[in-house]
Each structure stands twice: as structure tokens, then as C-alpha cells.
Amino acid sequence: MVDNFAMSEGDEVFIIVDGFSSSSSGDYTLNISYDPASTSEETEESVVLDYDEDIGDATGDSVATGSTAGMSNDYGDTCGGMSAPDAAMLWEAPSSGTYEFTTDGSAYDTVLLLYNAVSG
Length: 120
Description:
0% helix; 4-stranded mixed β-sheet; 8 strands; mainly beta
């Protein structure tokens, strides 16, 4: 889970759903909840990353579902997912506020990574 992630309207992030271990893959569910009370400060933009799907600006349960089985390992991180297949998505904040990203309801032990995206 990534919580208290402050964003401004139009900010974009790359969301990576990865497996905790190299043998972790399967069906995932991405949930995004919104709290309008907080807003973000300007963040530095990152290098444009490749992604599998643009999931728009939806919020709620099951914003994206799919499977990492058979996907490649494009992204790894230090807390797991070093060689597990992953799914990468581009998402845009529909409003300024604080967001929570979870994979509750996924069929395997996931690692969730967020990167600032370059708008444009």
C-alpha cells in the first residue's frame, strides 16, 4: 500500500504492480482512494518510463485488474520484486488531494511502486 500520496490535479504517476518474490505472479487488483483535504507541492519530474496500459484518472475499487503471469520483469525494487513479472500503468490525478493506492484483493503477494511521470 502507498498512502498519503499528495498530488495536484493533472499530476501523473507510473504505478507498478510487481511480485514480492521471483515466483510471485498472478491476478492483481489496483484500488485508488481519494481524500481532497490535502494537496501536493511541486514534485520533480522523472525520466519517461515505459508502461503497459494508460488507466486514465479513475478512482475507487478495481481501477485496474489483470495478471502479471507471462509478463516480463521490467521494474524491480529493493523490497522485493527483483525478478518477478510486473505490470506498469500510467494514471493521472483527477483532482488535487491525497491518494491511497492498494492491491487489496490481489491473488498473490504484491509490491506496489509509484514513480512521478513526465506530463505531456
